[in-house]
C-alpha cells in the first residue's frame, strides 16, 4: 500500500512539473515601452496693428417698379402649383444574420442563416438579398424556400431573389461555406449581408457575424495552445499516469485468495 501511494505521489509531482514547464513555454506578448509625448510651449507672438483704409460706400439705386394695371372686367389668372413628386417611403424589412459556430478550424463547414422578415401588414415586392462571402471561406451550397439563389464565383457574392414577400412573412436563407487556407489566427472571419426591396429600392445591411480561428489548428503559424489548454492536458495526462501506475502495482501483488493452502502434517 505504501509503495502504491509513493508511486501515485511521484506521478502527480511529475504531472505538475510538466504542466509548469509547458505554461512557462507558452508565448507571452509583452507590451512595448510607453511613448513620451513632449508638449510644446506656446510662444506669444506680438501682433502689430495695421491701419486699413475704410472703403467708401457707393449708394445703390433701387429701380422703381411700376405695377401693371388690371383692366376693368378682366379676371386675374391663377398660378398653378405643381404637385410634389416624392413617393412614400417603403415599409421596413429586417435582415438578421446568424452563424452556426463562432470558433472554427481549417476545413470546418460553417452555416450562415439570413433571416428576412416582413413585419408589416402589406406585401413588399422586389426583395433581393446579397451576401459577399469573406475570402477565408469557400462557397459550398445555399437554399431558400422562395425565389431563386445564385452564386458568382468571380465576385464571391451570393444573390437571393425572393420576389414579393407577403405580410408577416419570414424567409430563412441557408448558406454553407468551408474555411480555407486564407484563414489565419488571430484575424477573425467577418461577414455581413445587404437587402434591397420596394419600389424605392431601399437598401439596408444586416448585423455582422464573426468566427474566430482556434489557435493551434495551424501549427505553421507558431501560435500554440494557451495556458488553460496546457494545464487541462497536463491534468489529464497526470490522471492517466496515476491510473496506470496503480494498475501496474496491483498486478505485481499476488492475490491472497488464489494462494494454495499448505497442509501441514
Q: Would you count the extended β strands for me? A: 12
Structural class: alpha+beta
Query: How helical, in percent, are the residues?
Result: 10-25%
CATH fold annotation of the domain at 94-214: Immunoglobulin-like
Number of H- or I-type helical stretches? 2
User: Quaternary state, please?
Assistant: single chain
Low-confidence stretches: 26-49, 78-84, 216-224
Radius of gyration: 39 Å
Query: Largest beta sheet: what is the strand line-up?
Result: 6-7-4-10-11
Order of helices and strands: HEEEEEEEEEEEEH
Major sheet, described briefly?
5 strands, antiparallel
Shape: elongated
How far is it from the N-terminal to the C-terminal residue, by CA?
Answer: 34 Å
CATH architecture type of the domain at 94-214: Sandwich
Could you report the average pLDDT, rounded to the nearest whole number?
75
The CATH C-level class name of the domain at 94-214: Mainly Beta
Strand-residue proportion? 25-35%
Report a brief summary of the structure:
With 265 residues, the chain is an alpha+beta fold.
Textual characterization of the structure:
Among the domains are: 94-214, Immunoglobulin-like, CATH 2.60.40.740; 221-251. 19% of the residues lie in helices and 28% in strands. It has helices spanning 2-25, 227-252, and strands at residues 94-99, 103-104, 109-117, 124-132, 137-143, 148-152, 157-165, 170-179, 189-191, 193-197, 202-205, 209-213. The strands form three sheets. A five-stranded antiparallel sheet has the order 6-7-4-10-11, with no helix packed on it. Mean pLDDT is 75; it is low at 26-49, 78-84 and 216-224.
Amino acid at each position: 500500500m505504501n509503495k502504491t501511494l509513493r508511486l501515485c505521489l511521484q506521478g502527480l509531482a511529475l504531472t505538475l512539473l510538466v504542466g509548469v514547464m509547458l505554461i512557462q513555454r507558452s508565448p507571452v506578448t509583452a507590451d512595448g515601452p510607453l511613448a513620451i509625448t513632449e508638449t510644446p510651449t506656446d510662444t506669444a507672438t506680438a501682433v502689430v496693428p495695421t491701419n486699413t483704409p475704410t472703403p467708401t460706400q457707393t449708394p445703390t439705386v433701387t429701380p422703381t417698379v411700376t405695377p401693371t394695371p388690371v383692366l376693368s372686367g378682366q379676371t386675374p389668372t391663377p398660378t398653378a402649383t405643381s404637385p410634389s413628386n416624392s413617393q412614400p417611403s417603403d415599409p421596413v424589412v429586417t435582415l438578421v444574420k446568424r452563424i452556426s459556430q463562432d470558433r472554427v478550424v481549417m476545413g470546418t463547414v460553417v452555416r450562415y442563416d439570413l433571416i428576412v422578415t416582413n413585419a408589416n401588414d402589406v406585401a413588399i415586392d422586389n426583395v433581393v438579398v446579397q451576401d459577399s462571402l469573406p475570402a477565408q471561406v469557400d462557397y459550398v451550397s445555399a437554399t431558400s424556400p422562395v425565389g431563386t439563389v445564385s452564386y458568382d464565383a468571380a465576385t464571391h457574392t451570393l444573390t437571393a431573389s425572393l420576389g414579393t414577400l407577403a405580410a408577416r412573412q419570414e424567409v430563412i436563407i441557408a448558406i454553407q461555406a468551408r474555411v480555407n487556407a486564407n484563414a489565419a489566427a488571430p484575424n477573425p472571419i467577418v461577414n455581413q449581408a445587404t437587402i434591397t426591396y420596394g419600389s424605392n429600392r431601399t437598401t439596408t445591411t444586416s448585423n455582422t457575424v464573426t468566427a474566430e480561428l482556434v489557435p493551434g489548428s495551424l501549427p505553421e503559424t507558431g501560435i500554440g495552445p494557451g495556458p488553460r489548454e496546457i494545464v487541462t492536458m497536463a491534468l489529464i495526462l497526470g490522471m492517466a499516469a496515476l491510473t496506470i501506475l496503480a494498475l501496474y502495482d496491483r498486478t505485481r501483488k499476488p492475490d491472497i485468495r488464489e494462494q494454495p493452502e499448505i497442509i501441514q502434517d
